[in-house]
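User: Structure tokens for both sequences below?

Assistant:
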Amino acid sequence: MTRPGKMRTVGAAGLACACCLLAAPVASAAPTWLSPTDLSAPQRNANNVDVAMDDAGDVVAVWERDGFPSHPVQASVKTAGSAFSAPVDLAGAGSAPDVAITPGGEAIVVYTQLINGINMIRVRLRPPGGSFSAPIDVAALAGGGASIDPEVAVNGAGAAVVGWRDKGEPEKFVIQAATRPAGGSFSEPTTISDTSESAGGRPSVAVDSAGEATIAWTDIRPVEGPEENHGVVQVSSGSGASFSEPEDVSTVDLATEPKLALGPGGEPTVIWQGAELEVVMVEEEEELKEKVVALPSAIEGRTESGGSFGPVFELSDDPSVDSFRPRLAIGAGGQAVAAWLVENAESEFSIEVATRSGGGVFTSPVEIPGEEVSTSSLGVSVNPAGAATVVWQAGAPTVVQASSRPPGGSFGPPTDLSTPGQDSLFPEVAMGAAGDAVAVWRRFDGVNFIAQAAGFDANPPQMRALSVPAGATVGEPVTVSAEGFDVWGITATEFNFGDGSSAVGNPVSHIYASPGVYQVTATVHDPAGGTASASGSIAITASNDFRLGKLKRNKRKGLATLTVEVPGPGTLVLTGPGAKRARKVAKAAGAVALPVKPNKGSLKKLRRGRKVRVRVTVEFSPTGGSPARRRKLVVLVMKRHGKHRAHRRARAHRGR
């Protein structure tokens, strides 16, 4: 049995027992998007906002800010359970940041930076729970060239790839890459595209569990005739200086915006926006002239299996409408989600999604309900369990909206994430292993664009520990504390002390007025309204802390009265060699007069004129509590007078 005064802590392993004692059931609020919070400071525009989230719910957001003479790349970090940090400068004059994070929390940020006329590709690393490293140069191109559109990916062990477009010959871009093994350094840049042709658009990159990188991009190819150029999606895999020859994966005339993701076994799936080109005759200035037109675009893709890409599949299914701006995400469990925009004949936009279980084929597209969808941007993320979130912008002024689905479920109706009345643009989204998500975008405050974020709280909070003393006494301050956790923080901790009183705070103190066994219940609240509770009992005993007060002697009778201050009702007993046993009952707190009487032996000594020293023991037994003892040395004195004086006079007279 735990002794009173010893602290008992109910930890994570003991909460199963504590949960049996809950005063109220856990309230699990529905998964909810939380209110947005600003990340960047006002007065300067924030652009190119990106975000990554690890399995524990740690978040790294990055963006670039306009300014002169500096054009900084900034970051804000949110560890699980805390708020976003103040912005941290990563580069004084940078642009186009991109961020990736391992499941365990190692983050890699890539960006471009112009230093002394040299356009650099740089990265900064942040270990789990740590600070950003100094810049690491990945590529440098002198002579007025341009390294642009960097993208980074990292696997669970920390192996990484950075891909970008590099301008070599005038008007021609090539795709370059640098890779890093887990725990190692980045390789020298390697050119992986055909240098005789030009690469268009930002490359899409991924890295498998073995550290092999895969990169997809659009190769711009000139053709004879009025069509001039075709776009072909190409893919290459490798690491270090060794990448495979680029492989054509698209077959349409114009394939753009490739998006790449890897399945659990490292098999790449790439999707793109594709359209056939057609030459038509049009009349201009009374002459018939050839003109190239693009037929309605579709969303297509291919998946590698057994070392080679399978046949082209179509994700969009209506050839009469334009489908464009594809996005693709595949979770660690193999669940894939593809999303894209659709424009109908009335120039109305909508969002369609198709999903695929591991090893299967994509479903027919399903439209996410929504109104006034904008054409600018959308993002998609899938967690290891298959939960998914799609974000986009809609309306005028634009608001950022989101639709989420649980594992194996369907996408729900859209939810506004940003505040209406402000233009909020270019959202991105990332998810954690438990289903929490974070979306970022930029909002217009009337003067500048501000980087902003909102969290998706998918889970109720956890009660990780509850500390309650095993026992205390009436009138003694009792301190209790609780450790709650939620990815988005704990907003309040409330304690119910079981005696009709409660308090908010952590830790808190309380004084019990009566003895008994009380159940202390702690409840933590998260921002979405979810709660978690745990209880522990405390045994309150009556206080036995009494005080011995003044001693009043009755010298005529050889007696004394000892004043005793008691904290409450109980029984007082006085004993000791040379004193008679005395007992009194106290009905309430206050002073009690306890008689000290000599026994027969002590009385004889007193009558002979001697002082009697009596060491008495006073025991107080409070009602409902344990006894306590105090000792005191009492000196009894009796003055001889009355017949004793007459006897003395008679003896004196006889002696004359």
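Moving on to the next sequence.
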Amino acid sequence: MQEWTIMVYMAGDNNLSSDMAYALGEIKSVANDLGITPNDRVSFLAYYDSGALTVPSFNFDFTNPAAPIRKITNKETIKRFRTKNELKALAAKHAGVTVEDESVETSSATAYGIMNFVDWCINQQGHKATNYALIFSGHSFGFHGTSFMRDENPVSYMTIDRFKWALEQVVGEQLLGQKIGILGFDSCVMSMLEIGYEFRALADFLVASEGSIPNAGWGYGNIIRHFAANTSPKEAREVAEQLVKSYIERQQDSAIGGQSIDISAWDLGKVEAVAKAVNDLGKTLYTKLNLPAKGNDLLAADIVVYEQLNRALLQSHWNCQTYMHDQCVDLKDFCQQLLIEHLCLEKQIETIFGAAAIAGETGNVIRENFWQQIAEIKTALQNVISAIDACVVLCGFCGEEYQFSNGISLFFPWSELAYFITKSRYEILEFTKEIGRSWDDFLAFYVCLATKRLPRKEGWSFQIGFEKLTELSAEQSLNRDNLPFKRDNLPFKRDNLPFKRGESGGYLEYFGRLKNFPLYWDVSGYAKDFNEDSGCKYFEWLQNR
């Protein structure tokens, strides 16, 4: 039995088609140069769906020079792999299972496409191994939108829950209950806590990026070279770490092109601890911000905490590393920025109390209550950071745009509009349903009340806004048509912008960029090598003047 079987699923029926074709050529060239044979420790196989209508999909076995390619035709998809449950249900076709149309052009954005490929690799080609790596290359936008594994012919995409179902069949049927050693995403915005939590029971390690991936992808030739150079057995953790290093090394050579990337490896066995810590943080922040819920128990210290925490959250959210048009944050960087804000607050708070002319026993009680609440927030933040440090095996970055990445991102939008448009997809994720309800509650409060100015409307108050938010949160099923606004009723439509669609992309790229990060194209490294934050150093410098 081989040590590793590495399977790459390339969904290239889109604008990535030519880049993936080049990557396949690179793999073939390196495999031939190294003289890889079926008797080697590692098997490397790939599926490729071309963007050309006249070109069928292909399976490639780069560890078998005698038969490196197998052409896939529409006719063959009829003989696709079927699960045990489907075999039992053949009498009632399609009963209980969504089955893709077999008469259309072969699509990579199907659960059965994935299952067929893995079945071909392991059972038909005979590449059973001690460890398996399954890497998906294609478009994605985290759990958002309709871009995950997007296929242009026919136009289709996969949802996260459908993709998860496919992996469950792979683990249960082809791998006979064995977890995928490494689940990789050579695609954008997949190193999210919400995404990793979905697959914690199906894979041991996750390798993905918080930000965008260039069309050229990971560079699989470099990965093969690393495997060939090291003849000793490799554990999944070591391979996951090597994938990160391999990509960073490759990207450093092309940094002069101005592209920024990040990539990280997680231990999915420790992701639940991160999710729990985030939920506890959400609960703590929500409790401190939700003044209307305190009713008659509202204390003077509660108001002070609300005012200071509200400012600190906005400042930390602004300063921290973000992705996906600033709709996601690097979780560790956000927590570190919020800790810095509290560090500043600790040095200034006595001045604040003095200015308020708070003295005597009453003042002492308020101070004690205030410090107790601040300590609870700091503890929750530190717990998140500790959980991330235990979960992330290695995080690397190259380029200015993602230089403050630490491995795990989290959905953290700026506006009520962004939150509610995404809510219908967000609330069906396992993270939100099982363990992240308090974080979701905090998000709703943050974007709808805490960070929003009151409207110029007679009789409007914070209490009224809270009541309306409570009514919205009580909705059992919130979809686009149930929102207080519809797509066509937004302040502007895409075609009504003051610039053409082609111009808008360039405009947003140069003038809509919110972050004022240091612009150094040749910055690169690993997050573990940068433990001290520049914000802390700056604050220490001010204190020592």
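User: Anything stand out in the second?

Assistant: The first strand starts at residue 2 and ends at 11.
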